């Protein structure tokens, strides 16, 4: 549920306010007034993800100094929505009040809010005793919201009115319950068939989230921003879990408010970030993605055999194929990332059973890289949507329309081969080779994959390197020419290992140089490029997830001080967001603003931003699985003091890691550990 600071929901097609379930907005109007006046919140308690309490008085802030009445609005959410209204009469006489709640639903699909469209079905309000039923039908698509009150109410098609008489210093209460129903083909609520039934009490949610957080390693440190960000991340990751309709497993949603669903890319990067802390979150994601792996050529959904999905939606527009998200496969990086994640998961957990179980799916993913993924037959992964009407043009992680450009701002034609896609493919082949050799008893296949990876690395370093600028091109255009913008993507190349050792120092220097590094983090696009905009979605903002992968890449090549610089900048930024790193923030210079500037429509919380402090911890403590052991090689940034992580889970059982800030002469750079 998303509301304004008064707890109200006003109909909006600009921002997704409302009560949502599986991509449908069940309540779009929820406005409380007292004697014709809107209420103002004196204080809001929103420390828990599933409960909020508003302490309210009528009128604007300047009018409430001697308020004779107040309202406490307590709400909780867990498969349904409940709100308790308590009106308190602070005067010395009995008083009459008129409390009004405007109620309405447009049953909008999330995509209809993003791109305003007229509804094709019909909403019918039905007045019942102390209840209002709102029903939406479009052919077999049937959704319903029923709002009921425990106190007597005058109900009409637009809401409820309570005429209340309250004694001196007395109070009055009603409990409102909103039941949402997603009807299946046989007329049943499809969420009722799930293992958890779609409904949990606040106490059950509280117990479940606490149990998850308790299982995470315990952090002790001298750095308060790190401690705060770690606590917030665990809380947000626990809160973002949801029960999937498709398999009935618990998954982590990508982000609030737009992305409360499974995303291939986001879900896998989040899984990589949380592996050392909460590995139990990872296996359901891997299984879900494997179960929905592409099996045919479907132009509308950008589906191809072996391909891993981009996004799964459940709403009306997906159901009627007005959007291809049922599921949609328009991502060129997810398939390699699937192999990378499976291998990393086994290295941490020792779960060989899953590797054997998913051998077919993993081989199919690796085959996709060299077949459908290589659109031009050049040995690289390219992308171009099969669905020009409703498909995504850009199918890399920077998937907004203007994110891939030449240095002068021009846009290349399609297909495009962005640099990080080749890095992921290289890493996936090496990891696939390890799985084939150690688990599938297929050394010939392993040898082949390793030869292909070596050839790809050599080819990539020849074709993507821009010698006069000493960095890799953002992409190749269809003619094989350099798309020469300087971007954060080169940091992902370090993470993948495809960068020649001799070129790594130049890449590190660019990443931490003034064109890309703002002081708060690495920008998505350097500040002297044609399309640079410090508040442009992928053309100058700073993305915490992006920076965590860059820090991991710098660490892999031995640039410990540089990795630590990114860790410090991210954690310093987190202080200004109450420990919760948003999806992205502006790319302004640190000296210009003294604080990181918010990006206007950033998701918060977002899963891979919540995972960022966890991955930064792994980087600072130098955690790396090796066989049955965990290697610990800390390099804590100067000024951060002691960092201690207890009970790190993995195939080794549970181990502890301790690091302290090094002095400048302790740092050694440029050597792989």
UniProtKB/TrEMBL annotation:
Protein name in UniProt: Glycogen debranching N-terminal domain-containing protein
Residue ranges of domain Mannosylglycerate hydrolase MGH1-like glycoside hydrolase in the record: 412-576
First and last residue of the signal peptide: none
InterPro entries the UniProt entry points to: 6-hairpin_glycosidase_sf, 6hp_glycosidase-like_sf, GDE_N_bis, MGH1-like_GH
SUPFAM superfamilies given in the database record: Six-hairpin glycosidases
All copies of domain Putative glycogen debranching enzyme N-terminal, residue ranges: 1-176
Native organism: Micromonospora maritima
């Amino acid at each position: 549920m998303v509301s304004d600071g008064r707890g109200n929901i006003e109909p909006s097609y600009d921002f997704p306010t409302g009560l949502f379930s599986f991509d449908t907005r069940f309540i779009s109007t929820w406005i409380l007034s007292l004697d014709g006046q809107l209420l103002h919140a004196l204080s809001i308690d929103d420390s828990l993800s599933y409960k909020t309490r508003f302490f309210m008085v009528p009128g604007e802030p300047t009018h409430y100094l001697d308020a004779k009445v107040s309202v406490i609005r307590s709400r909780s959410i867990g498969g349904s929505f409940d709100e308790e209204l308590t009106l308190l009469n602070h005067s010395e006489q009995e008083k009459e009040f008129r409390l009004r709640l405007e109620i309405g639903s447009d049953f909008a699909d999330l995509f209809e809010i993003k791109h305003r469209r007229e509804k094709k079905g019909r909403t019918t309000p039905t007045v019942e005793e102390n209840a209002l039923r709102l029903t939406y039908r479009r052919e077999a698509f049937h959704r319903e919201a029923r709002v009921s009150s425990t106190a007597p109410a005058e109900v009409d098609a637009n809401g409820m009115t309570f005429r209340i008489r309250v004694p001196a210093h007395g109070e009055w209460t009603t409990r409102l319950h909103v039941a949402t129903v997603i009807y299946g083909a046989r007329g049943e609520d499809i969420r009722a068939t799930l293992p958890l039934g779609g409904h949990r009490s606040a106490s059950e949610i509280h117990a479940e989230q606490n149990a998850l957080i308790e299982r995470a390693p315990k952090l002790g440190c001298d750095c308060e921003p790190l401690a705060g960000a770690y606590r917030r991340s665990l809380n947000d990751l626990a809160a973002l879990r949801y029960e999937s309709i498709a398999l009935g497993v618990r998954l982590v949603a990508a982000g609030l408010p737009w992305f409360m669903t499974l995303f291939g890319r986001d879900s896998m990067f989040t899984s990589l970030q949380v592996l050392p802390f909460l590995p139990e979150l990872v296996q359901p994601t891997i299984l879900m993605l494997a179960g929905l792996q592409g099996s045919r050529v479907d132009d509308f959904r950008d589906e191809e055999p072996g391909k891993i999905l981009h996004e799964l939606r459940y709403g009306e527009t997906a159901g009627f194929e007005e959007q291809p998200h049922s599921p949609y496969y328009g991502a060129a990086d997810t398939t390699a990332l699937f192999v990378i994640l499976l291998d990393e998961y086994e290295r941490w957990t020792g779960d060989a059973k899953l590797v054997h179980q998913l051998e077919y799916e993993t081989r199919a993913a690796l085959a996709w890289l060299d077949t459908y993924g290589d659109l031009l037959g050049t040995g690289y992964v390219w992308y171009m949507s099969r669905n020009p009407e409703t498909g995504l043009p850009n199918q890399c992680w920077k998937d907004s329309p203007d994110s891939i450009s030449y240095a002068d701002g021009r846009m290349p034609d399609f297909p495009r081969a962005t640099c990080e896609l080749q890095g992921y493919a290289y890493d996936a082949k090496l990891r696939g080779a390890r799985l084939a050799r150690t688990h599938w008893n297929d050394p010939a296949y392993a040898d082949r994959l390793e030869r292909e990876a070596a050839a790809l690395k050599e080819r990539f370093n020849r074709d993507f390197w821009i010698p006069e600028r000493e960095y890799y091109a953002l992409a190749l255009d269809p003619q094989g020419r350099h798309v020469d913008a300087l971007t954060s993507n080169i940091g992902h190349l370090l993470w993948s290992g495809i960068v020649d050792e001799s070129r790594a120092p130049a890449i590190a220097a660019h990443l931490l140089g003034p064109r890309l590094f703002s002081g708060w983090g690495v920008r998505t696009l350097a500040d002297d490029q044609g399309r640079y905009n410090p508040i442009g979605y992928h053309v100058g903002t700073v993305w915490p997830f992006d920076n965590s992968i860059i820090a991991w890449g710098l660490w892999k090549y031995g640039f410990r001080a540089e990795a630590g610089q990114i860790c410090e900048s991210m954690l310093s930024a987190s202080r200004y967001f109450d420990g919760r790193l948003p999806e992205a923030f502006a790319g302004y210079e640190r000296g210009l603003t003294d604080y990181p500037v918010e990006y206007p429509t950033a998701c918060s919380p977002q899963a891979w931003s919540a995972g960022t402090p966890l991955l930064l911890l792994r980087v600072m403590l130098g955690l790396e699985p090796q066989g049955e052991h965990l290697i610990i090689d800390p390099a804590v940034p100067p000024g951060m003091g002691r960092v201690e992580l207890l009970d790190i889970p993995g195939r080794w059982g549970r181990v502890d890691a301790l690091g302290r800030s090094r002095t400048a002469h302790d740092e050694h750079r440029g050597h792989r550990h």
